[in-house]
UniProtKB/TrEMBL annotation:
GO molecular function: L-amino acid transmembrane transporter activity
Keyword field: Membrane, Transmembrane, Transmembrane helix
Lineage of the organism: Eukaryota, Metazoa, Chordata, Craniata, Vertebrata
GO CC entries: membrane
Localization, UniProt: Membrane
InterPro entries named in the record: AA_transpt_TM
Organism per entry: Knipowitschia caucasica (Caucasian dwarf goby)
Primary site of residence: membrane
Domain Amino acid transporter transmembrane: 12-290
Segments passing through the bilayer: 6-26, 38-57, 77-100, 112-134, 154-182, 203-224, 230-254, 266-291
Protein name: Amino acid transporter transmembrane domain-containing protein
Membrane topology designation: Multi-pass membrane protein
Amino acid sequence: MPYHWYTDQRFALFIMCLVIILPLSIPKEIGIQKYTSVLGTLAATYLCVAVIVKYYLMESHAVIITPEHTEGVGSWASMFSVVPTICFGFQCHEACIAIYSSMENQKISHWVGISVVSMFFCLLIYTLTGVYGFMTFGRDVASDILMSYPGNDVVMIISRLLFGISIITIYPIILLLGRSVLLNQMLRLRRRSHGIVSSSFESRCRVALTVVWITITLFIAMFVPDMGEVISVIGGISAFFIFIFPGLCLVFIMQGDQVSCRFNGVLTVWGIITIVVGTFIFGQSTTIAIMDLIDKF
């Protein structure tokens, strides 16, 4: 089949970033994402249901589902190797403040309820998809479950389409959070040197940071073929957001909070344990991920 540049996957990815992702990422606020992010929830639910249905529609289940490591040191190493993936899947802490600030009802009880329901939904979807995906393909399951199914499967083609749409809707939220950190530093330096920051300067900086951010991630998406390699590294780093930073916040809050000594001590100890566990997970999982990447090259 002859090669055409306009049918190349990289060209399609570039057009998608230029036409869809860039316009969604430039706005200053994420209020519009509360509508588009519904597609992400729909995609995750559809994929989970599709994987379960595909398992029960199989004519036979003659696959090897015995783990490669069942006991000994290898078993412990394999257990810790999945920690980055789990951390990556539940890495939503950095988006909490931005999401909370865009809510109309900002009562703490309402926010806690939303957080618990959301995390439970993620846990349910991830667990069912992972279990049934492994039961379907056994040890041969790909790190990206969609790659394990044939390319002409209509049900999974729809899953791939919805998964792509969900990434498009999630990406601007993460970009906004990272951009806001860099933008605040730039505006602070500008304010120190000039005394005032104009709205036009802020807009130019915001657009420039957005373009640079998307360009870098576009190159990564083009030249890194295996998403599992990216997740293994980023998942270890996400231990900062999941364990270390919340633990530090809890410890510092307890130092100035007027609560009973016993309750204060329990929460302080819990914060310290969270920091220690997060530090161990970060060091261990990131080291393994980097060593695996070095071995491949």
